[in-house]
Amino acid sequence: MAAPVPGIVTRDAAQTPLGPDLGHDPDLAAVAHVISAVRERAPLVHCITATVSMGIVADGLLAAGARPMMTETEAEAPVVTTVADALAVNLGTLSTDAMDGIPATVAAAVRDGRPWVLDPTAIGLAPVRTPLARRLLDSRPVVVRGNASEVLALVGSGTGGRGADSLSAPAAADEAAREVVRRTGGAVAVSGATDLVLDAGRSTLVARGTSQLTRVTGTGCLLGALTAACSVVAEDGFEAALAATVWMNVAGELAAERAAGPGSFRMHLLDALDGVGAEGGR
Amino acid sequence: MAAPVPGIVTRDAAQTPLGPDLGHDPDLAAVAHVISAVRERAPLVHCITATVSMGIVADGLLAAGARPMMTETEAEAPVVTTVADALAVNLGTLSTDAMDGIPATVAAAVRDGRPWVLDPTAIGLAPVRTPLARRLLDSRPVVVRGNASEVLALVGSGTGGRGADSLSAPAAADEAAREVVRRTGGAVAVSGATDLVLDAGRSTLVARGTSQLTRVTGTGCLLGALTAACSVVAEDGFEAALAATVWMNVAGELAAERAAGPGSFRMHLLDALDGVGAEGGR
Amino acid sequence: MAAPVPGIVTRDAAQTPLGPDLGHDPDLAAVAHVISAVRERAPLVHCITATVSMGIVADGLLAAGARPMMTETEAEAPVVTTVADALAVNLGTLSTDAMDGIPATVAAAVRDGRPWVLDPTAIGLAPVRTPLARRLLDSRPVVVRGNASEVLALVGSGTGGRGADSLSAPAAADEAAREVVRRTGGAVAVSGATDLVLDAGRSTLVARGTSQLTRVTGTGCLLGALTAACSVVAEDGFEAALAATVWMNVAGELAAERAAGPGSFRMHLLDALDGVGAEGGR
Fold first, then answer.
1. What pTM was computed for the model?
2. A113: number of CA atoms within 13 Å, CB side?
3. Domains of chain C and CATH, by start
4. Of the candidates C197, C97, C106, C104, the residue with the CA atom closest to the CA atom of residue C143
5. What angle, rounded to 10 degrees, do the helices at B237-258 and B219-233 form?
6. Which of C226, C193, C214, C206 is nearest to C256 (CA)?
């Protein structure tokens, strides 16, 4: 795990005993108002995401109490996004339809004052999505969520990840994340074994979760979409990113306790997103 | 729940005790011959469906004993649909490929006398799929399946749903559904907490199922595809739509009893589609 | 089951008692070094696959210890495949993007000396993928994996499958498979109730697995992608195809023991891909 950074709160899963008193999980308690507000508001989130992750993104948003909407053509996505509460854009597949549809859809969300989240999946080497992601920063996403390699590639450092992998630890992307914040005025969430969430004034490391989250496709994409859902009810991008990060990681911890392998982990993760912090749940 | 409509049989889940004698479920008994025939015939169903729901549609058809086939380009879909027993068209994603491929694929199915089912997902606001869905009515789908908002939008009333959501109760779409029936000569199934199935001469409310079905992506799309499978062996569209609706809803009830959340509900739903009404099953 | 073919080793699941001593499964023992090497190397596999099977392909590769990458446009797929260890090409959907992207992506993999696997899903009737699959043989895939109908259609015999179905037993494709081997210099795996794996010098029938594998979408696609993962660490295509076939089938047997239906079978299959042959696992 990364060494504690001065001025940054580090929370360690090992310091948080699992048990029947999980309602008292301090990380969860700090973001419980956002989780409850998502469940009450049931925000409609338009998602343009990697094809392979569509299932877990949609089912994960539903489990969390939000409502997903997915279409990506230039002809329809900008129109239907006008009735959504937030927009999540993930570059994971970047089909021709998505390539054409994303700029107009982001513009529609911005025009209507909807918060939107950018997940620059697998940028760096890929020749189309890399410049696209950089241009999209001008549309000021409320949160940029990616792994360290992707955040580095976003500001022109490093060579990007290989697929959804990250070759760098979140702390290595600290400077790059601050550069993104300067450009967007929003927040950045850098995912990894320890997650880093920061904006212009705050910075937190979240040392929760489980490596099992890396054994299921699309958990990162889901985190981006969940962040968009949280951004509808949260104070700002930082609070949204922090709430979504804790929500996913605590759900992951619960799922890991129950799972016999990556197949059952995926199922328990969706159950836990529904149950985390709910009455009778954790 | 909607008040009983005169002349319409209302079945209430509360009147159907769950227990070991579920083989005697009267709703299930009324459609058991269709379910058995699907399992025996194993109809091949070509599906053009929302990308996000492809997994549950294909796995759900397989669990039900049918066989799915999925491709949507104009170059191939019309050709391969000629070996299918039925066609299910869902407008949920409407990629450029699907936009181009759907009209020719429907025409091929019609030319070969195959039954086909239209699921006008999310029409209303969306500018391409709304006129497309209305034009497709001329190709006389054996069943149109949608939520109330979508059925209203199909005949030009209302503003359509938001994504897969319905803002209206099925009964509110009764007149619109009858208008669709007049145009297609087939049946309409309006999904909701209570489902409405009708054709020119019959109308039934099905008050079965569970709200858990709305917590998993693609259950509506699967219902449309399952209706197409049933249409291969049923007397007509009405019988196919009623059988598929009862099958899905009873499977949903069984799954809800066993599930700990939406993740495990999805798994149990697929198991229950396989087990419902089978020897040793419900 | 197909009758034993002279000179071909037939292994029968019925002769392999299930129990705590499954570590001694002789089929598994014969390929355990490949399975272990995949887990150690964690090969990055670029996959162009049927849209409906993307989820199980990606989650299955992750469960097996490999790492999936998926994008299919001509603009990006050939570039990102250069950092992959292997390429798996499945023609199941053949979107316009994939149609354009596949030839250049295969060329990039060949140029870089990466092994690649061809899965000619549903060729025969389909007018675009059939000639494409035949042309791709010139790029010498290390393994061609398909059902008997597809392998027959690849060399111009038979009329191909219907969707993912096979109308022919693997043994019926023996001659066609040998013709493919003559053209590619690699191996061919013909999937069915009994699987046939052969190359220029060797031929093996694998009578393992369970019919439950045909009740879940994409298990064949996953087998193709798993073969690509194995080809990174195996001696040659034959060893890769045999290892992947045994791995999938033994995992399927384990999952079938635990499953209550096709929904839970899918989950247990992913768990079993992770657990098979691992310490404390089978």
1. 0.92
2. 0
3. 9-15+24-275 (3.40.1190.20)
4. C197
5. 130
6. C214
CB-CB: which of C126, C262, C266 is closest to B80? Answer: C126
Chains A and B: how many Cβ contacts under 8 Å? 105
Q: Is the model's pLDDT at B280 over the cut of 90?
A: no
Residues 6+ apart with CB under 8 A from C178: C188, C198
Chain C: residues touching B (Cβ < 8 Å): 50-52, 55-56, 92-96, 99, 122, 125-129, 162-165, 214-218, 259-264, 266-267
Provide the 10 A C-beta neighbour count for residue A169.
Answer: 17
A170 confidence band (pLDDT: 50, 70, 90): confident
- β A67-69/C187-191 pair status: unpaired
Average pLDDT score over residue span C199-207: 97
Name the DSSP class of A213. G
Q: How many angstroms separate the CA atoms of A137 and A117, rounded?
A: 10
Q: Which residues of C touch A219 (CB under 8 A)?
A: none
Interface contact flag, B72 C92, Cβ < 8 Å: no
Q: Tell me the ipTM for this assembly.
A: 0.90
Nearest CA to C229 among C245, C212, C205?
A: C245
pLDDT in tens, A125-148: 999 999 999 999 999 999 999 999
CB-CB neighbors (< 8 A) of C261 in chain B: 63, 270-275
What is the side-by-side order of every strand in the sheet holding C116-119?
C9-12, C203-207, C195-198, C187-191, C143-147, C116-119, C86-90, C44-48, C67-69
